[in-house]
Amino acid sequence: MIKTIFVPQGSEYQAVYRGLNSVFRNSVSNSKIQVIGIPMGISSLQEFLTRKYQHLKQSNQRILLMGLCGSLHGSYRVGDTVLYEKCIYEKKQLDKTNPVNSTNQINCDISLTQDIYERIGNRVSLVRGITSDTVVFKSSEKRSLHQKFGADVVDMEGFGFLEFFQGTGISTAILRVVSDDSTHDIPDLTKTINSQGLLEILPLVITLTRQPIAAGHLIRGSLRGLKQLETVTRCLAIQE
After folding, report:
1. What is the mean pLDDT of residues 144-163?
2. What does pTM read for this prediction?
3. Taking a C-beta distance cutoff of 8 angstroms, is the pair 103, 128 a contact?
4. Are residues 109 and 173 in contact, defined by beta-carbon separation less than 8 angstroms?
5. What phi and psi, each to the nearest 5 degrees, are found at residue 236?
6. Which of 220, 145, 133, 231 is CA-nearest to residue 179?
7. Which of 10, 100, 103, 231 has the most beta carbons within 10 angstroms of its beta carbon?
């Protein structure tokens, strides 16, 4: 049984909560599954986990990260559910005299990933994810990431989640839903996320207003992705 689900705060958290709530008699507490809202971004997430959830490293748990992600090529479209086999991260070392980028990779737990796949197999694809420090909003950048790293989808938390629990014996898996495809730009949301990894509403509204076409793609994709996130959570919970 999965004991803890991490999911970005806000609409993604609410979608997962609704999915569990619909299964466990309108009371998530009856599910014995802890749902924890997390900040966006790898650095904010790792600081959050280090400050509040060190104790989980000492437990014998199966922990799942859920949320939305972006597709990096045409095989994965808005609304598709993906299950990570591994996640990679290109760490950029800020040394102006000798700039070096190093790429790291961490595998998800094979047993837990296989268990989730068997439960929702015809609704999910196994993928290779990549974690970005910033919002990947241009379709050209998405294709470039796919070509350079062979990654299928992109997020902002996956690698940080896996790295935090690496070597602890904790079983970790990542289950996400595609909310933006590889062929359309979305607004650059980088400046709408504050230093604590939280979405700022006013900057978000301003950004969406200034880029109406890209905003339309983002909103439609997010609504469809959130609906599917709720559905896949419900499907997963029924099997628990």
Report:
1. 97
2. 0.93
3. no
4. yes
5. -65, -40
6. 220
7. 231
